[in-house]
Specification:
Strand content of chain A: under 5%
Number of domains of chain A: 2
Oligomer: heterodimer
Structural class of chain B: alpha/beta
Largest interface: A-B, 50 and 41 residues
Largest sheet of chain B: 7 strands, mixed
Order of helices and strands of chain A: HHHHHEHHHH
Number of strands of chain A: 1
CATH topology of the largest domain in chain B: Alpha-Beta Plaits
């Protein structure tokens, strides 16, 4: 009687308990890795565009290309024509620029890979954030250092609200900013 | 004297003198009473068995979803593909993704109101009014707003079709079809080419028609099913020429309206409503107008009458003659008339007194369906009253409509082979022409029948060639309906299909070379015409190009024209009226409020818009009085047979409070046979009763009527949302859903509405009130100005992506309209007083829906909005159950998929959606959001320009569309604003205030401008 119970505990209960504990740890670890929120997402783009070169080394203003960022909810990916403002002359010899030029000349659409994504039911708005003085880097990280653009912060509802609730801790440089709204209609409608 | 208990019981069983919505309610039908104890219609969950929907239950689906997500999470890439962002290759200058562009244009109907088309990323998504337009002043009717749905109709014709030898239509290229038709036109010999069109309101199109007529010996036949011909003929008889003028309703103090629905369906109702409502301003109480309506069936105008008398339409001549005599001093004839027709003598006395006392400020107006003689007599009355100063003589007619005589001769020539080709220029004569003319059989004798149309219709189905044409939003044009201005029409999107503008097709035939066509020909033709006829160089450096782009930008060009000349009245045409036999039945045909003459039958928004009076959707019916129903032995939904002029016709009846006895009123525009999946087979086509031979009026005639066989279910949106008013007597009044007074009462006691000082008790106890210190949104609806037309409902549909659900679903109480218009009657069923009330989410401070949601999907925002979050909603429907106003709507299905086999899921349909509003799917609750997307847009704009948002920054869609500006919206806490005047008005009240749910929609009580009892 006694033997068999110990036997049962050792042979069945213990392994199951250990298995459950290990898998829970493993799963929790796996799921809570930053990659799960898309952090580190650096998809391969149809043209190897370097933000480091343009925004970093040459210090171009983000708004030169992302023209919608202070006007609308979309930051806007620049039209191919915007690139050609410079590249009709600049660096015409590079293969990537020649590739760009074929898109332009043939009127083909340039399918950039999406890096950051908030779901369709969240109506995130770039202009209100930018116009309140929040720097692009607050969400997009040091784009000026990125050879290939990638995601550095989490874009979940939790991360939005984290900043909305604790804006003075998160963005101490903005002294006069109000807390962000945390009612549903602020993002969902 | 206190009543005995028995009397009370007896009374409540017999009839309730208070507000009632239907006869069942008035007569305390036990079934109805039982039903009214239930908040929702009995059938609301009928045939809704989740198991039947799909064997794939939600639970199973979630389980599988979870499992597959776990699998994907462990097995696959860390970074699932997030799709692509595709920018423009070269961005058009005027397009910024996320920002709407507005283009001024003109509505494509005979009234030509100015419209502003809102486009997003190049696709039109909503039609608003153009504030610069001198007539419509920023408002447009339901039809113009809903016409955007027709642009994206998946059943639009996409290629030219030719009738092949086998009787089937085959696709043909534009070049070939043009070649063949030009060949037909050239080989006409001495025969005529007939062009059947609608009313011609475009000066450039008129020029084109003239050129076409000259080149091909063609004759143009503009025809409208409803028109002003009788009124104009009487005017010409009275004054020797010209057209019947517009009325300055805003300057009229007394309006006597005979059988006209000028607020609902007659003339430019947007202008009429705006001007009329200027005399209904509670802040200018001494300027209230008084509306007398004498009509056979309750119309939208009748709903808004201060005094309403029911009179069969064929007795109007007798009445007008008696009234003319009374105005000239002899009351005896009017007295005997009132005895014969059992009209209130007191009301008639006060009518005559008012007319005489307000001479120069009183107008008598007769409906366009009445006979020429009535109009002539009415002109004489107005002449006697000195009301000619209320005439606004600016009407312009570019091309007269054809008379019935012309029509008969056209059909004769068709029958005798003297017509080489018939061209249906965006018209549908097979459906619209009176059947006794035999147009359909005459058409078979014509070898070439050419139909230009957007969608298939009855006339196209009998044609040899069907040419698909552009929607007005894809077309160029101009419009002239009044002296003093001309308006322009411009395309806002390139043609979606292989279609051409109808004028361009004709122009290409005039040019005579099929190969020479290009997209710009009519655009250039239009510009050339404007350059030569509209453009007047002010100075040497003014150029046409600048003028043209300004004209397109504004949508309207003011021209200097003066029209008025003095009027001299010729009274010799006065005829004595034929006396009416009271025992005969009279049929009155009216345009439908939604589909007008049937041209909008394929529009789901309009079909589903409840009739403003009866609240019936998706059907027409014969409106009769209770007495007539008893006489015929029919009840609601029973079919009656009507025989007139050899034709027989069956239609279900609806017993309409306030109908004259033995008067049968039927709306035309229904019973289309070939109008796509939406419009075909909806309602009954009463055009068969009309006669093309000229009588006194084609729309009003005697008929014999008998009970028919069977019944037909009419679906109404009115008996949903019945509140349980059996518990207390006087419920509707005590509960304060409708509160009213009279102008005199208000003048004496401005605070009469709140004199009772009733105690507020609350089922929610004394909650600690949330403080709203900042901006807080609220709405105020002025019931003096609300006419009940339903423009706001369509605006809301368009703005908020609301699906069409279909007749079967409306029958179950599942319509999705966020905003509805409730209509209440009070008084007796023969002389009802009516009240209308737009009802939408009240955004209560103590919202009962919020307390019961188990998943917190509906919550309150700090600016006072009741928020609905679709993603959290699991569809328990508790909130709807707990809503005292019954304004929450549940998606029992994915209605886009459910309605007509996924009609609204067609690819082209996706283009119509407002991208700022979520498209809801099955299983979630939804409701009015106070246009949160517009609030957020205003907020973004304020932040961008570094200022604080104020209440007047936001206009809700319903507010923007309301032709009388009855809806106000703004910041409750801004005491200085225009909105605050209405929010804190002494006539303001809240519906079901005693529940203490603290609603945020203030209703301004309706004042009736009646005489006090002594007078």
């Amino acid at each position: 009687m006694k033997n068999s119970q110990l036997d049962y505990i050792l042979r069945i209960r213990l392994p199951i308990t250990i298995f459950i504990v290990i898998t829970s740890f493993a799963l929790t670890y796996y799921i809570s890795r930053p990659e799960r929120d898309g952090i580190g997402n650096t998809p391969e783009q149809p043209i190897q565009f370097s933000h480091k070169l343009h925004a970093g080394d040459m210090k171009m203003d983000c708004k030169y290309c992302h023209t919608g960022v202070d006007k609308t909810r979309h930051a806007m990916i620049p039209a191919v024509g915007t690139c050609m403002n410079c590249h009709t002359i600049a660096r015409k010899d590079r293969p990537q620029i020649q590739l760009l030029k074929t898109y332009y000349d043939e009127g083909k659409l340039l399918p950039w890979k999406r890096v950051h994504k908030v779901p369709d039911y969240a109506y995130f708005n770039h202009s209100v954030h930018v116009n309140k003085g929040i720097d692009c880097t607050a969400c997009h990280g040091e784009v000026t250092q990125m050879e290939i653009i990638g995601q550095v912060s989490s874009f979940t509802m939790g991360s939005c609200l984290d900043c909305h609730k604790n804006v003075h801790d998160k963005l101490p440089e903005l002294k006069s900013i109000n807390k962000g709204p945390n009612n549903c209609y602020a993002c969902h409608r | 004297m206190p009543e005995t208990k028995d009397e009370k019981v007896n009374q409540s069983v017999k009839a309730d003198p208070n507000y009632w919505r239907s006869f069942e309610e008035l007569h305390r039908d036990p079934k109805m009473i039982e039903q009214s104890h239930n908040e929702f219609q009995q059938s609301v969950t009928d045939e809704f068995d989740p198991k039947k929907l799909s064997s794939f239950s939600r639970r199973k689906f979630l389980a599988l979803l979870g499992a597959s997500a776990a699998l994907a999470g462990t097995g696959c890439n860390d970074y699932p593909d997030r799709g692509e962002i595709i920018p423009y290759n070269i961005k058009p200058d005027e397009v910024t993704p996320g920002i709407a562009n507005y283009y001024a244009s003109t509505a494509a109907c005979e009234h030509g109101c100015g419209i502003l088309v809102r486009t997003r990323e190049g696709r039109p998504i909503k039609i608003d009014g153009n504030p610069d337009h001198p007539v419509s002043k920023g408002k447009v009717c339901t039809q113009a707003q809903a016409s955007i749905l027709d642009l994206y109709n998946p059943e639009r014709l996409k290629n030219p079709l030719k009738l092949g030898g086998s009787g089937l239509y085959v696709e043909i290229s534009w070049e070939n079809v043009d070649k063949e038709i030009i060949q037909i036109l050239n080989s006409r010999g001495s025969r005529e080419v007939a062009v059947v069109s609608g009313r011609i309101v475009s000066p450039t199109a008129k020029k084109l028609f003239d050129e076409f007529a000259q080149k091909y010996n063609a004759k143009i036949y503009p025809y409208e099913l409803f028109n002003e011909s009788l009124r104009n003929r009487a005017w010409q008889k009275s004054y020797g020429g010209g057209l019947y003028p517009q009325i300055k309703w805003d300057e009229a103090k007394i309006i006597v309206n005979l059988e006209s629905d000028f607020l609902g369906s007659e003339g430019n109702r947007i202008e009429n409503a705006r001007l009329f409502a200027q005399g209904r301003d509670v802040n200018n109480i001494n300027n209230f107008n008084r509306l007398y309506v004498i009509e056979g069936n309750m119309s939208l105008t009748g709903l808004n009458a201060d005094y309403r008398l029911r009179l069969r339409p064929d007795a109007q001549h007798e009445f007008a003659s008696a009234l003319l005599k009374a105005v000239n001093g002899s009351m005896s004839e009017l007295n005997s008339f009132s005895k014969k027709f059992d009209l209130s003598e007191a009301a008639l006395r006060s009518l005559v007194k008012d007319l005489k006392q307000n001479s120069g400020k009183a107008i008598v107006y007769a409906g366009s369906t009445l006979s020429e003689e009535v109009h002539f007599t009415v002109n004489a009355i107005n002449e006697a009253l000195g009301s000619t100063s209320l005439y606004n003589r600016q009407a312009v007619e570019l091309y007269p409509l054809i008379s019935s005589g012309d029509l008969v001769s056209l059909i004769n020539s068709m029958n005798s082979g003297r017509v080489a080709a018939v061209i249906h220029f965006d018209s549908n004569p097979v459906y619209h022409f009176p059947k006794d003319l035999g147009y359909e059989s005459a058409l078979k004798k014509v070898t070439a029948v050419i139909s230009m149309t957007e969608t298939n219709n009855e006339s196209a189905a009998l044609s040899n060639y069907i040419l698909p044409i552009n929607h007005p939003l894809e077309s160029w044009g101009d419009n002239k309906t009044r002296a003093g201005f001309i308006s322009s029409q411009q395309p806002v999107i390139a043609p979606l299909f292989n279609t051409r503008q109808k004028e361009a097709i004709l122009l290409n035939w005039v040019n005579g070379d099929a190969k020479k066509y290009n997209d710009k020909i009519y655009h250039e033709y239009l510009m050339n015409n404007w350059q030569s006829s509209v453009f007047t160089p002010v100075s040497a450096d003014s150029n046409f190009k600048q003028f043209w782009s300004n004209a397109l930008h504004d949508g309207v060009v003011i021209t200097n024209e003066s029209s008025s000349s003095s009027l001299s009245f010729n009274s010799s045409g006065e005829t004595s009226p034929k006396l009416v036999d009271l025992n005969s039945f009279v049929v009155a045909l009216k345009p439908a409020y939604s589909t007008v003459d049937g041209r909008y039958a394929d529009n789901g928004w309009l079909q589903e818009l409840p009739h403003p009076v009866s609240k019936i959707t998706w059907d027409n019916y014969a409106a009769i009085s209770r007495l007539t129903a008893d006489e015929l032995g029919v009840k609601n939904n029973d079919v009656i047979d009507i025989k007139a002029g050899g034709e027989s016709f069956s239609i279900p009846v609806f017993i309409q409070p306030g109908s004259a006895d033995r008067t049968i009123t039927i709306e035309l525009g229904y019973g289309r046979e070939k109008s796509g999946v939406v419009g075909s087979g909806v309602g009954f086509n009463a055009i068969v009763l009309m006669s093309g031979q000229s009588g006194t009026s084609p729309w009003i005639f005697k008929a014999s009527v008998s009970k028919g066989t069977g019944s037909y279910e009419l679906v109404t949106a009115q008996e949903h949302h019945v509140f349980d008013d059996e518990r207390t007597k006087d419920a509707a009044q005590k509960r304060g859903i409708i509160r009213e007074g009279t102008v005199e009462e208000y003048k004496k006691h401005p605070h009469f509405l709140h004199k009772e000082g009733h105690e507020l008790f609350s089922i929610y106890g004394s909650q600690t009130n949330m403080e709203y210190t900042g901006l807080k949104w609220g709405m105020a609806i002025d019931l003096n100005k609300c006419l009940g037309c339903g423009d706001c409902v369509i605006a809301c549909n368009s703005e908020n992506n609301i699906p069409v659900v279909g007749k079967d679903q409306v029958a179950k109480g599942r319509e999705m309209h966020w905003l509805r218009i409730d209509r209440y009657y009070s008084g007796s069923e023969n002389e009802p007083k009516a009240s209308t009330q737009p009802m939408l989410c009240q955004h209560c401070d103590h919202a009962p829906c919020e307390n019961v949601c188990p998943v917190v999907a509906t919550t309150h925002s700090p600016d006072g909005l009741n928020q609905m979050v679709y993603n959290r909603c699991v569809g328990t429907r508790y909130c709807s159950n707990n809503c005292p106003y019954k304004v929450r709507r549940f998606n029992f299905f994915n209605f886009r998929d459910h309605f007509k086999d996924g009609y609204q899921e067609a690819n082209v349909f996706n283009l119509i959606y407002n991208p700022e509003v979520t498209v809801r799917s099955r299983g979630v609750m939804e409701k009015c959001s106070f246009c949160i997307q517009r609030i957020m847009e205003a907020r973004e704009d304020a932040i961008e320009h570094n200022r604080t948002i104020v209440g007047s920054d936001v206009k809700t869609a319903c507010q923007e569309s309301c032709p009388t500006s009855a809806i106000k919206f703004g910041d409750v806490n801004d005491k200085e604003s225009e909105f605050a005047k209405f929010r804190n008005h002494q006539l303001g009240y809240y519906v079901l205030e005693e529940l203490n749910v603290r609603p945020n929609v203030t209703y301004i009580a309706k004042l009736r401008n009646t005489h006090s009892e002594e007078a």
